[in-house]
Structures are given as C-alpha cells and as structure tokens.
Fold this sequence. Notes:
Blueprint: H1 8-20, H2 27-39, H3 42-47, H4 74-113, E1 119-121, E2 126-127, E3 134-138, H5 151-170, E4 176-183, E5 190-191, E6 194-197, E7 200-202, H6 205-212, E8 231-238, H7 247-250, E9 253-254, E10 261-266, E11 269-276, E12 284-291, E13 294-302, E14 308-312, E15 316-324, E16 327-334, E17 344-350, E18 355-360, H8 369-377
Amino acid sequence: MPESRLTLAEQRLKKYDNAVGAKTINVHASVMEVIEQKYGSLRDEHRMGKNGIVNDYMPDTMQKVGETVVVISPSKRSVLKKRGLAYAAPFLLLLSLAVGYYLQDSQSEMKQKGDIHYTVIAYEPLVDPVSGFRFSMKEMPEGVPQEPLSTEEKIRNEKNKLAVAFLDKQLLPGEKASFVIRTKAAVNGEDVVFTHSVPFRYEDYPAYLSKQAEMATPMLEQPDYLPNGFSFKEGFFYPYSSGTANVDSSKKRVQKLDAFTARDLGDGYELKWKKGSEFNEQAYSILTYADGNQLVTIRADRVEGRRKIEHQRLGHSVVETIQMEGRKLLYTKSASNSWWDYRHSLYWLEPKSGTYYSLSDNRNSKLSKEEMLKIAASMFK
C-alpha cells in the first residue's frame, strides 16, 4: 500500500521495520482479493453504471456488507428535485386553499361568536351634528301616576284599528291616505290629522335589494351578524310615516274635511279620509328576521326635515347610553309588565347618511342585550 495512504501510527511502525530490516507483508492486497472473489469488485460496481457509464459520484461513507445503497448523482438529484416540486405543486396549492378556507371559516366563526366591547355612560340624548336632529327619552314628572285610558279613548283606539284595516284595502303599495276619526256631531275645524300608508312588501331579500335602488327610502341592508336560527322574514318600504308616530308634525292643522270621504265606524264615530300618493322625506325602510316566534326588527329613517323624536321612558326598566366602536347608542329594556311589544331596543345615528336606526326584538325573544349589541355593531359602516 502506498505510504501516503497509511496513518501516522502505521508510518512510524513501517520506519521501525525498515530500520531493523523486517520483511513487510501486504495484508491489504490479500484481504481485498478474498473480498472480491466472494462479492465481486465493489469499486467497479460503484463507479460503473448499468450502461457502462462511470458515475460521477462515489459515496464517502462506509456501508455494511450486503446493505443496499441507492446513490444518486448531483445532476440526477437536480432533475428529480425539479420533478418533485412539479408533482408537489398541486398538492401544495390544495393545502394552501384548505388552510385559507379554514382560516376564513374560523374568522367567520369568531365573528359570529366574538365578544364585543362597550361602555355604559351617563344618559344623554342622541344628536345629529349636521341637522341638529335629536332623539331622546321623554321623562315623566316624578310622583305623577299614569292615568288609565278613559272610555272615550278606548273607543277611539278601537275605531282607529277599524279605520286602518279599511284603508289597507283601499290603498295600493306605496300609496298613502290622510284621515280623521271623529264623532258625527263634531263641528268642522281643527282636527288631528293622521296618515297611513301601505308599504311595498317583499318576502325575498334579493327582490327587496333590487327595489331599494328605486325607492326614496333610506338605505337599509341586512346585518353581517345574526344570532343562530334567525333568517330573513320580510322587507318593507314605507313611502310615508303611518299611524300616530307622525302626530306632532300634523297636529292642529286646519283641514277642509268637505273634500274627505266619510265612512261610518259605528257608535256615533266616522272616518273621513282622502287618498294621496306622494313621497316625502319621512319615508323609511324595515327589515325583519325570525326564529320561530322570535322576531328582530330593524328600521331606518331619514333625519332630514325632522327636529326631534321623543320616546317615552315610561314602561322601561332600563334606559342607558352606550358607547361602542366610536358611536353612542340608546338602549332600553321594557319592564316585565310593560305594554311595549319588545324586550330590548337600540337607537343610533349615522350622520354621514343622515339616517337614524332602531333595532328591537319582541316579547317572545330570548336574545340578550349583548346579542342585540352585536347585531347593531355588525351594521356600522
């Protein structure tokens, strides 16, 4: 064996042997000869490929006798690496899509279940900084008990229901009517004139959205969050405020009732009404969502042309001003024995669009205050 391939210890021993004239025995050659006779030439097998081509790459590690070793040249490694990446690309794409879908779904689920942060502050009315419109809770003087309805007031309420039911049959969607309920013995003069309108009604949300673009009503779209189980029920467009909600703006107006059509309501009362179909700034939109007998109602009104709305505090066990996501909302909870047809209600303003919103449930609702706030927060633009 050449001296260059000997270790330092072997080289020292060889010098000692040469100094004393000892005979050197080539053990390496005889051992390799025995191995090659039994297993063949290992060096040739490693260096020669099947096609007689010398491999460029030789392993620099020792292998056990009889162990199968796959050796790949650097050039082949590069090709296989490219092929592997090409084969793996579709799987990597599917994996990325799956991960993206999972993250998106997780974010959606977090949006459905995520907590909201709000602060209850001292009560204050809502005021639109642009128009000066004011929404407040009307306080009742302390110590003044609520007077029960008189017999005449009860009769008028019943006659009002009859009048509205009659007008619903006389008007087409989008039409309105002015009307007065009075005794037949009353003298023409100053009367409280009410209005009633028949809304455009849609039981399909896409149809509702399609019609909304044509309407003079405020833009109202479904919230991004709804509690589990709730789904779209109906959407409405009212071209004009109905019922007693508009009494303040129509009170004590002198009307020439001769132009009104009369209809007998019984018990000495009559309905005098006149049809009208014009739109005005008091048009509003409503969306309703239901889960069995539970109902959520969302309403949008324009503030233009209005000075104020006062909502009665009487009949509510809780009245709060809430600060949430940079906005102020009024929250009310009706008393258990209240006549209000809801448990929770929320009110807030959107100054940019000149709109105020109200959100309420019904007496059958099992929703919490926090669930109502989450619905409202998902509508903030």
